[in-house]
Write a structure and sequence with these properties.
The chain has 15 helices and 12 strands. It is α+β, with helices and mostly antiparallel strands. A 5-stranded mixed β-sheet has the order 1-2-8-5-3. A 3-stranded antiparallel β-sheet has the order 4-12-9. Strands 6-7 form a two-stranded antiparallel sheet. The chain is globular and about 60 Å long. The two termini are 30 Å apart. Bound molecules: 3-(methylamino)benzoic acid. 3-(methylamino)benzoic acid is lined by residues 61, 63-64, 147-148, 210, 213-214.
Length: 377
């Protein structure tokens, strides 16, 4: 975050000469970019790779990496699959798992908040909800990590997550077929759109791939960041315990203060002026959600974690037509875990050095040693 402030101080649009792209960090300009999909397109990729000149690392996503009107077709399908009624159907199963896992962890007291909770929970409930095979699920985390690393420069993080990726990618693609999915899950509901004539069979498979690309690492880091926030700020934890109804708004503050997805790219479709800066046609723009969420021009006391603040308009789920379509799943997972922790845990104490998990687009931890304390502080 100090690095973001150093870049922000240079101006509203900053050319990153090393990567030949333009960075946007301020809340106001970020909103402008994300609202104007006609000028700031997703169709040339939302990573640094510019599809006008270079091929994508995988067949491009048919929801993330297309603009309206094509985007509207696939968005409508996932909007329905991930709708509020669909969430209500999943809530019971998700709640049972949350209660069971948190009880087990409370009994152990000393845990790794990432390995034992932030990874375990989404990796159980989400693949179950999609209707995936039980075998091979370890590929999900590897694939998500790769997909997010692939949105940025081809550095060591990208290269490392590409090691042995052929088998990971092959497993993911094999799970995106109708017959690989249980008949009652989110995956099957994507294929139900084929039967309604909204998309074809191959497109349905690609939309299941989108679920598997975007649904795992994001929620793991979101949950891990939630634990990290409350472990660092015990006053906010006690406030949540006193007022559990704040859980939903706390999730927005977690996403503002410590979001899981830090950045994506857009590509200009024409020469354009943004905040008085001229940007040529077909140039890449780095849109930095995490920086906009700390913009001091938008947020009073931006570096303070405060679950009672008004978080309206935060960029943790992006903004505009591509705003996170799975956000209700993510909210459900974090809400249920926070609610169980509030019920079962008095204090969250960090008992060892938190370890970051570096990723080109994601912000989160690899390890967070925690003590779940039953005693009141
Ligand atoms: C790699 C990501 C995020 C959102 C959607 C998708 C991927 C997709 N991150 O594959 O559609």
């Amino acid at each position: 975050f100090p690095a973001y402030e150093a870049v922000r101080a240079l101006g509203p649009v900053v050319k990153l000469t090393r990567y030949n792209c333009y960075a946007v960090l301020d809340f106001q300009e970020l909103g402008q970019v994300l609202e104007d999909w006609g000028t700031y397109s997703s169709a040339a990729g939302v990573g640094l790779i510019n599809f006008h000149t270079d091929p994508p690392w995988r067949p491009k996503s048919i929801i993330l990496e297309v603009d309206p009107p094509e985007h509207n077709v696939t968005r409508r399908v996932l909007n329905r699959v991930l709708s509020r009624p669909a969430m209500e159907k999943m809530r019971q199963a998700f709640a049972v798992e949350a209660a069971a896992l948190v009880s087990e962890l409370v009994a152990r007291q000393s845990i790794d908040g990432i390995r034992d909770l932030a990874e375990l929970y989404p990796l159980k409930v989400f693949p179950d909800a999609v209707g995936l095979n039980k075998v091979g699920r370890d590929n999900l985390l590897k694939y998500g990590t790769l997909a997010f690393n692939a949105t940025c420069p081809r550095n060591h993080l990208f290269e490392e997550s590409m090691q042995g990726a052929d088998e990971v990618i092959a497993w993911i693609m094999s799970q995106c077929e109708r017959q690989a999915l249980t008949p009652d899950g989110l995956g099957a509901q994507v294929f139900a759109a084929v039967d309604r004539g909204e998309v074809n069979e191959a497109e349905a498979g690609m939309l299941v791939r989108s679920l598997l690309s975007a649904g795992v690492d994001t929620t793991i880091n979101g949950l891990g960041n939630a634990l990290y926030c409350f472990a660092r700020f015990p006053d906010q934890w006690q406030l949540l315990k006193a007022r559990p109804e704040l859980a939903r708004s706390a999730i927005d503050e977690i996403l503002r203060y410590e979001g899981a997805v830090m950045n994506f790219f857009r590509t200009t479709t024409r020469e354009v002026e943004l905040a008085g800066c001229r940007i040529p046609k077909h140039e890449k723009l780095l849109v930095m959600f995490g920086a906009a969420n700390r913009d001091p021009k938008r947020w009073p006391d931006a570096d303070r974690f405060d679950i009672t603040r008004d978080t309206k308009g935060h960029m943790g789920f992006g903004s505009g037509v591509h705003m996170c379509v799975g956000q209700m799943v993510a909210r459900l997972e974090v809400e249920l875990i926070l609610t169980e922790l509030v019920k079962q845990v008095d204090t969250l104490e960090i008992t060892g050095p938190p370890v970051r998990r570096l990723n080109n687009a994601l912000r989160g931890l690899a390890s967070l040693p925690l003590r779940l304390g039953p005693e009141s502080p």
